[in-house]
Amino acid sequence: MALDTTIAQYDAPEKDLYEVGEMPPMGHVPKQMYAWAIRRERHGEPDKAMLQEVVDVPHLDSHDVLVLVMAAGVNYNGVWAALGVPISPFDGHKQPYHIAGSDASGIVWAVGDKVKRWKVGDEVVIHCNQDDGDDEECNGGDPMYSPSQRIWGYETPDGSFSQFTRVQAQQLMPRPKHLTWEESACYTLTLATAYRMLFGHEPHDLKPGQNVLVWGASGGLGSYAIQLINTAGANAIGVISDESKRQFVLDLGAKGVLNRKDFNCWGQLPTVNTPEYKAWFDETRKFGKAIWDITGKGVNVDMVFEHPGEATFPVSTFVVKKGGMVVICAGTSGFNLTFDVRYMWMHQKRLQGSHFAHLKQASSANKLMLERRLDPCMSEVFTWADLPQAHMKMMRNEHKPGNMSVLVQAPKTGLRTLEDALEARQ
Prior knowledge:
About 25% of the residues lie in helices and about 20% in strands. It has about 425 residues and is an alpha/beta fold.
């Protein structure tokens, strides 16, 4: 059933192209739109790869929905898409240009003829998993294992950095009305990813009283991991790289915080049984003891929430307890992971890859936001014109703790309804 929505009444002309922030008549689909586009020949840093272009508004299939984007979230997918690493998105979707962006809040503007659950005027957030819906994994299994699984805005050419975006109807979820458009836009990708990492891999789904080491605790993923761990009645031990972020992480509810700059055991594992390995091992044990100072002597963490990859993975596989799990969803510090396999097989540890989330998991996470159990931890909001610079800050790790958003059709920050946006334009 579609959500009950009272659609605002307003006068607006029908045109083929609207300026960014200009509101078309409800349900009127123009021929063209503004978008931040990447082209293969421009692959490079975001401020060079992303250029504003006028492109065609995408056409809908029967199960598709067109969303007017009010605000979009900034995450590392955009950086990877701009750089063309670890792969170029053009190698997948084969289209002439790529619109990045895998998070958004907005308004349903048009629906395909078989869409039943949503109608024009519904206010939504978007999760970024797409699939064809017709195989065994999508029907009784795990859609994230479907051969057709793909990430909207990274493996598809039509992400959220445009006035309109095309998504599958199953990607939509109700927007928390107590949040602003920009707050609503910043959380779904990182929150749902963190939710699946913590609760999606039985029998190592998080349980009350367990301890979790959270890398990048002040970032988008980490800030939600800590809140979800608290919600589950477990204990988060956050790792930071900047002492100024300690209080932020403690305020989120972390049981303790470690600064990785206090230790020297990062990067690829030295060759086993060399002096360099002994030095690494001694420093890693020092890091492990610092964890014990929080959890209790001899109490190793039940789970490690991994995403830096190359710089931290050897330590993660060492400090997790016997039978525990290292779950990883990214490799922001590099993709060549090394570890001492003896500690994996002899201590029967689980190394688990995790990739975004399916609708059930994303919806469960979104429900916590709807119920105000979680804070979106929005740190910075950028104007439409500054979208590439937001990605430059993320690439250089210069962004503030939490999650970033960029305004698209919302004319300014602090607005919570369509009526607010219309008034702000007057």
